[in-house]
Amino acid sequence: MKYRLNTTNYHDFATFAVNKLPARSYFIPYPGRAAADAVAPKQKRYASPKVQCLNGEWDFKFYPRPAELPVELDTDAVHFDKLDVPSCWQFRGYDKPFYVNIRYQFPYKPPVIPTTGKVSRTFSWLGCDTGIRLQWKVPGEEYNFVGVYRRFIEIDDADKRRIVSFLGVASCMDLYVNGFFIGYSEGAHNTAEFDLTGKLKSGHNELVVVVHRWCNGTYLEDQDMFRNNGIFRDVLLRTEEPTDLWDIDAKTEKKPDGYTLTLSAQTLSDIDVAFTVKGHGLEQTATVTAENGTAQAVFAGLDVTEWNAEVPTLYNIYYETATSCVKEKIGFRTVEIKQDVFLLNGRKIKLKGVNHHDTDAANGYTMSPDDIERDMLVCKRFNIDTVRTSHYPPDPLLLELADELGIYIVDENDLETHGTFAMQLPPTYNSISNDPKWESHYMDRIMRLYQRDKIRGNTSVIMWSLGNEAGGYHNTDAMYDYLKQHSPLPVHYESAIHCKRQAYDVGSEMYPSVKMVHNVGEKRRKQARLNDRPYFMCEYAHAMGVGPGNTEAYWQEIYNYDNLMGGCVWEMVDHAVLHTDGSYTYGGDHGEWEHDRNFCVDGLFYPDRSPSTGAKLMRFIYRPIRVAHVSGGQFEVFNTTAFSTGRYRLAFRWNDGSKTILTPQTAPLMKETVTVPLGRAVDGLLAVIVETTDTVTGQIVSEEQLVLAQEVAAAPAVKPLPGDVAVEKGRLVCRKSGVVVVAGADEGTLLYRAPTDNDVDAMFHNLMVLYTRQTEETVSTQQTADGWQVVTKITNKRGHYMVTDTYKGTDSGVLVTSVLHRVSGSQEIPRFGKTFRLDEVFDAVHYVGRSGESYCDMKDQFPIRAVDCTVADMTEPNLRPQESGNRMDCTVASVSDGKTCVVFEAVGRPFELGIKPYTDRALLSMKHRRDEARTGTYVTIQAFQQGIGTGACGPGVMPEFKYHLKEDCTLQFLIRIEEA
Q1: Which residues of the chain have pLDDT under 50?
Q2: Range of the domain at 219
Q3: 121, 388, 651, 732 - which has most CB atoms within 10 Å?
Q4: Is 522 in the active site?
């Protein structure tokens, strides 16, 4: 079949929609109530006889040179491939995955985009691949690629009204049917609907969709993610009868006599509509005849149970006509701001949130219903009660599941113009958002967000968000005004901070320091609009690589001040590309001409949704009950929830085996003191683990350890070293039963460790580089009456240091004493420790200390326990290998080959432990998991290691978690070799 293709819509600035139907609520009609009741939300759109899902195998033709796309397209003459819909073509072998954060993939000349020619030389001054410098790049063979999709559909009755719904297409789409142009749409994450009535025929019909890589709208979609294309969400073909519904709405309002529920419908003709609210002992129905296509029913004085994320009580609402039934679920709740406090159902809440992108390592933006449900269930399991849909409207199923499961939603507009900042001088976020020419484009997006999700605005959606990092303010003001005309919900928009608006209904910032947050609580910020309204950290605790460190400090402030309403960690899941061999790649691995490296690998969860240490940390920080030791047997219980009293059972489990169980009746966001019998100290340790169980779900939601006392034995009496211990070339060598242990095996790391993603400053400088070329020179080696003394000179770009090591014999093994002295230069050093190398057959690990990856600014999520594991378990599977796996508060550690153990025992105070299958130096050259080749077993005993912080995108390590060498530092421990 032949088509004359439109060649201008995608780059005609005046065109962002052609023949696109007005926005309406997302809903799925059924023939009757019984059928509507029979399906769960996940299956709703696939099971209705009134809706045909067009997912599946489509014909696909990719045009890597857009000039080769004929204006006169004869589909009968095209050799099509096959492509699954929904999907992203970069994840199916067409084009390549391309990750970039804050830049566009073409020259910044809004609204101009590349059309059929090659992408020309591009300017920017900022990027992870190049750092901060003026740069012009020639992209190479980069074009505005085009994909042509085709699908045949069978129609049994061409006279019926049929609407096709595209839930997500990037970047834009021209739709054709049976040789005719139907319409055009842009706005990738908004629903696009077209009326096919009269364009279809009974029998065989051809549907063609032309998708361009970029359109004018791409200037508004510069989000931090892989830049993908295609029909990436479901496609639905709706069959509508004259007596069906066109749109539905619901509004709730709390009044003195109860809630008022207003249900309304837009109809295709003036018909009878039956409105019903039902559930929890309530059932009311009203039948109304539509006038001029509108019907409305008001239910007043409803005595209902209010919805909240802790107890998500929902009621069924039905919209019924002679030929259809639409069933929705709704919660009754209020959201309001009183002075500077954000209230839900009249109560203060603290939002324990995360930012959620649509991301799948095998499918890009495409997520199945099971994927979406899995992510929401993961949130519930990890005490996450808030999701910001960064940075676009999600699949509407996510919102339905949030209603049911109990998750607060910040519903965000599909809008970000970050490249305005990085690709022009002087840099500013405001260029497009303050340009009135773009106002209609902005308004279309916010209108379609609101209209699609307006029913959810009664339940899980507690704030609308105008978008992300697009500045202001002319066009953002217009969007704000639209929302305030249609919805009572507060409006969030962090990027207002970059223009004179500063804030809309809530103040918001990304990655503030703890001091900045504290000053908001104290109402002392220079930006006045951060002081007089609720304050929300829409992004904080950047979860890239190891970390995020120092997150607890934010929550101390949040709980201290009523105007601080919480925040959302950036972000939930690592973005990456999964390959058939099971490996993952990130930015720059696919030949991208510009990229932001592994900045996309910044999630609490790995791509397969297995939790990183960061996820376990946030589960702990977001715990519903916090316990602190007051004195003696008195403990303070803090209920961090907003609505639950007496819901959580606490089991105090002491390390001597004794246990006390109680269920406190602490009021929400209040504290009370309880009395618990103390246990007995065992081997110098008196500690209790408070296990908190949710009595509603039966799940353990947190473990919190309180260490009341920890004593570590002093050094034993010394005696001469045995003959199998010597110092060779300045290194301690222990031999026994054929086992050889060598100290100093990872030369140059006494004060150094491999960098983490967070070891960077604002100028992209890696702070560990100053230690990379560190030299360690043995100054003297001297045998003493009871051992050896070795003096080592250490030189790096930060300063000069001396380490004096003494090795003495005891009945418990070799007593190692290392004293670090600063000669000149910086007092601040990242680590002081000693590394020992063993053969890789020493794979069984035993230790007593923090039972998971822990650093001084992120350790309390793991109790001190006895742990048995392997060497592989002692590092974390970060997609970009880096320093990982540290263990705090260790008193003993050993590695064994099954026959012999090498034991390290603390003296005087606990040590920090690192065990790796490779050296820290080897880590420097590792870029991916597949690079982690084992070369032995490396045990590092440390006096200290600095904290982690969030320097990759946020504050670095706080001063209290750095080590300042104001005086000599001593590390002391025992080492021995014994039979297993």
Answers
A1: none
A2: 2-240
A3: 388
A4: no
